[in-house]
Design a protein that fits this description.
The protein is of the alpha+beta class. The chain is about 15% helix and about 35% strand. The chain contains ten helices and 57 strands. Strands 1-2-3-4-6-5 form a six-stranded antiparallel β-sheet. Strands 50, 51, 52, 53 and 54 form a five-stranded antiparallel β-sheet that branches. Strand 26 and strand 27 (about 530-535) form a beta hairpin.
């Protein structure tokens, strides 16, 4: 009986029934954690009583979950709720190839492009030693945009009851218990290989047979084996002659040859690797094949020309044999990695992210402040030293080499160009902004990302008005970091947005349309001859691109871990490439930290947990009863919240776990809930959520198209305090929102400056915060909720204000990396507070992140134990030959 809508299997809510069969029932379900629809395949009841089969399904799901390919529908997991086993699958919308074939044969060009994507999917699976075993049109989805998804990889199917003798019966799965053992049929009758039909062991060559049958059906418009019963169909698979005349006359000779090699009944004589089929199809798509319907005269003439050409080649070969014999043997191209030690900006500081590699791969450009102002530096590979570039002092920005390697464009508030031959940096008179990436081609066309929430713009370097270069299609959030391909027409760029939308896209000059190539978290570069290089989570990957079709091929190759990124600017990474194929990148160098309680002089009085080298964000909060700590850490590419249940001796425990940024946690007054911000909608933008400490579902506090940062939860449990950036590049203001949902949000500040990192006073009547009103950051206090006077508390700058438990003291971090204390006298009414002069307490080593105890006698800090070196720039050469 079908499950009713609204019922649950594990965390998944059933929405509707998609289909039924002997393999079970498939439902559309909602994944509440990732906010997406999935396909939930509920397995037959027989599985619940077959321990061996259930265990094998779990192992299989785990193995298949490792497959990550654009033409393979993903398996997300395995659920077993109340004895009801189910597989959680990617929900792929659209018709199947079987639906498409019900209308007849498919045009040659379209059929070859579909076949190419099926071959790419099989190739990726076979490389992981995974065999599909049931490839058929019903397991292949073809979307409206022509993209293909292969479904049901490697999943055993349950035994179906005997079907009536209809043509459709020949396409029914037929298998028995213990389906992975010798002598058992597994597959679908019309598409299974002869060895499958005989119950013999199978390998990847069984998939190659099925692939050939599917391609034959696409081209001919009819099934290759189509009996009235399953037995008749299996007999055809084993013995019937193959009707090659059913193929269209225009079928290229190479495609015919491919099908004959795929459909050899003896697997020893069959094509052994699907990659060979892929290459044949690529040649046919590129026009390398020729139809067989030519006259015999033409064929004879072609053979005569071939013989004449062979004789000519033989003569030439003889004349150069001695030269080739005397020539030294070619040197193997070994992958090499060079570590370029560069000046540091400051001890322990994260260096500026942008780097650029010259077109010839011989010079690296980067930003550094080595005993002076921040400026551009050049490091020639032929030299042991880096040289500063005169006239480039300023804010570090995005870098782009000119195609001739003689100058560099850089964005430092304005677009500037500097000659590497000693010329001064000068601003370009262009009405454009490139704060989120820029690129140029040899024709003088400039592509740039002017803002966080905008499409790309193009304009000539000679001047002019920017014009749109891409179209922002919701739920896309923004387009960033364009990168021209060698033809100067096509370009890569990063789209920020929710999961499934975010990734690297391909655009072309003259069109606003673009298509998604690959899921990614950072900007991409192109490494000749045909690799797209990008970051996913914290790792660096490269994947091959077909330069004729501009489709991604094969599996992504992992080149490095810990790619250096700027967490506050989504998508930017220390990554560059040259026209020679060399890649330059920087790895994040993480210090070792220890959560430590110190007294007011900075002397340690206790430690929490163990030594930690994970990347740490500014989240560090202690529960109201001072028994539990919540902190933000980035581990294995995920930025999540973690807790330590015993604030003195406890161990880390993950609180959130998902592929997005969860941070800025605050405690409820009773310590039972944590509110936080999350970028789960993609693109680095945050919404506000809450979750019980003891576990449970996350609930939304505030979702909107604006960027929000969680700041505090008032101790009277009436308000959440958060920072809101209302529009692109606008100032950030403080807002409060009622916890009970009654009433409208209250805007606390409305200025042209940034007000951030705010805290309620213990009596919930005051708000302390930092503001950029003076041109630098200072600490202020103002009454709440009624408007009133603003009081400046810090002297000479201040960050991250926090209150003592009774409100009698306010603490902040100074620009000198010291902690300051200010005695406060808060009035019971009115806004006439009194405060004393700030007093320094102790100096931080590392980031000034701290939490005061309620009595102000101790402070929990993140004590740096070991300062990391300035990350070197790594150059990889000849890596394509691995």
């Amino acid at each position: 009986m079908a499950l009713p809508g609204g019922s649950r299997i594990g965390p998944y809510e059933i929405l509707s029934l998609l289909g039924t069969g002997g393999m079970g029932e498939v439902y559309r379900a909602r994944d509440p954690k990732l906010n997406r629809d999935v396909a939930l395949k509920v397995l037959p009841a027989a599985f619940a009583t077959d321990a061996d089969r259930l265990a094998r399904f779990r192992r299989e799901a785990q193995a298949l979950g490792a497959l990550n390919h654009p033409n393979i529908a993903h398996i997300y997991g395995f659920e077993d709720s109340g004895g009801m086993p189910a597989l959680v699958l990617e929900l792929v919308e659209g018709p199947t190839l079987g639906d498409r074939l019900s209308r007849g044969s498919i045009d040659l060009d379209e059929a070859l492009r579909i076949a190419l994507q099926i071959a790419q999917a099989l190739e990726a699976a076979h490389q992981q030693s995974i065999v599909h075993r049931d490839l058929k049109p019903a397991n292949i989805k073809v979307r409206d945009d022509g993209s293909v998804k292969v479904l049901d990889f490697g999943l055993a199917k349950a035994l179906e009851p005997v079907a009536p003798a209809t043509p459709e019966a020949a396409n029914s799965p037929t298998l028995t218990n213990r389906a992975t053992e010798l002598g058992v049929i597994l597959g679908t009758a019309a598409y299974m290989s002869p060895e499958q039909a005989r119950g013999k062991p199978v390998d990847k060559r069984a998939d190659i047979w099925s692939f050939g049958v599917v391609v034959f059906e696409m081209l001919s418009g009819r099934r290759m084996f189509d009996g009235e019963t399953i037995s008749d169909t299996l007999a055809g698979v084993l013995k019937s002659e193959l009707d090659w005349n059913a193929l269209p006359a225009a079928t290229p000779a190479g495609v015919r040859r491919l099908l004959r090699r795929c459909l050899e009944r003896d697997s020893k004589h069959r094509m052994h690797d699907i990659a060979d089929a892929r290459l044949e199809i690529e040649d046919a798509i590129a026009g390398g094949g020729e139809p067989v319907g030519e006259s015999s005269r033409t064929a004879v003439a072609r053979r005569e020309r071939a013989l004449w050409f062979a004789a000519l080649i033989a003569g030439i070969a003889g004349s150069v044999a001695l030269t080739l014999y005397l020539r030294p043997a070619p040197v193997d191209q070994f992958e090499t990695r060079l570590q370029l030690v560069v000046p540091s900006s400051a001890p322990g500081a994260v260096p500026p992210i942008p780097i650029a590699l010259s077109p010839d791969g011989r010079t690296v450009a980067y930003w550094a402040a080595s005993g002076g102002p921040m400026q551009l530096w050049l490091r020639p590979l032929a030299s042991e030293a880096s040289l500063p570039v005169a006239g480039t002092a300023g804010q570090p920005g995005y870098l782009v080499w000119a195609p001739d390697g003689r100058s560099i464009l850089h964005w430092s508030g304005t677009l500037k160009e500097v000659s590497i031959d000693g010329g001064a940096s000068h601003s370009l008179n262009l009405a454009a902004a490139g704060g989120f990436g820029l690129t140029r081609n040899a024709s003088g066309v400039l592509l740039l990302a002017p803002a966080n929430l905008s499409p790309l713009a193009r304009l000539p370097l000679s001047g002019g008005k920017p014009e749109p270069a891409s179209r922002l299609i919701p739920p896309q959030i923004g387009h960033r970091f364009p990168y021209f391909l060698p033809d100067g027409e096509h370009f890569l760029f990063l789209v920020s947005g929710p999961p499934g939308v975010q990734g690297i896209f391909l655009g072309v000059l003259g069109s606003l349309d673009a298509r998604r190539l690959v899921d990614a978290d950072t900007a991409a570069v192109f490494s000749p001859p045909n690799f797209v290089v990008y970051g996913k989570q914290d790792a660096l990957f490269a994947q091959r691109m077909n330069m004729r079709t501009f489709e991604m091929e094969g599996e992504a190759v992992r080149l490095a871990d810990r790619l250096l990124q700027n967490r506050t600017v989504f998508g930017i990474a220390s990554l560059a490439a040259s026209a020679t194929g060399a890649i330059a990148y920087r790895q994040a160098a993480l210090p070792k930290y220890q959560l430590t309680w110190v007294d007011r002089t900075g002397n340690p009085v206790g430690i929490v947990g163990g030594v930690d080298s994970a990347e740490f964000d500014a989240t560090l909060r202690v529960s109201p009863d001072e028994r539990t700590i919540v902190l933000g850490r980035r581990e294995n590419g995920n930025s999540d919240l973690w807790t330590i249940a015993n604030a003195q001796h406890g161990a880390l425990q993950r609180f959130t776990s998902a592929p997005w940024f969860d941070s800025a946690a605050v405690w409820s007054p009773d310590g039972k809930d944590i509110a936080f911000q999350s970028s789960r909608k993609g693109g680095g933008f945050y919404d506000l959520y809450r979750k019980p400490l003891g576990g449970g579902d996350e609930t939304v506090i505030l979702e909107s198209a604006e960027n929000k940062t969680m700041s505090d939860w008032s101790l009277d449990n009436k308000y959440w305090l958060f920072v809101l950036q209302g529009r692109e590049q606008a100032a950030r203001d403080l807002w409060a929102m009622p916890v009970n949902g009654d009433g409208k949000p209250i805007q606390i500040t409305k200025t042209p400056f940034d007000e951030t990192t705010a805290r309620f006073s213990p009596d919930s009547r005051w708000v302390a915060y930092q503001s950029s009103a003076t041109g630098s950051q200072d600490v202020y206090v103002r009454p709440f909720p009624a408007p009133g006077r603003e009081w400046r508390i810090s002297v000479g700058g201040g960050l991250s204000p926090k209150w003592r438990g009774d409100g009698g003291e306010l603490y902040y971090a100074g620009p000198d990396n010291r902690l300051y204390a200010v005695r406060m006298r808060l009035p019971a009414s009115g806004d006439a507070l009194e405060h004393e002069t700030p007093v320094p307490l102790f100096a931080f080593r590392g980031s000034p992140i701290f939490v005061p105890s309620r009595d102000g006698r101790r402070f929990l800090i993140r004590q740096m134990l070991e300062e990391p070196p300035t990350p070197a720039i790594t150059l990889i050469q000849n890596w394509q030959h691995r």
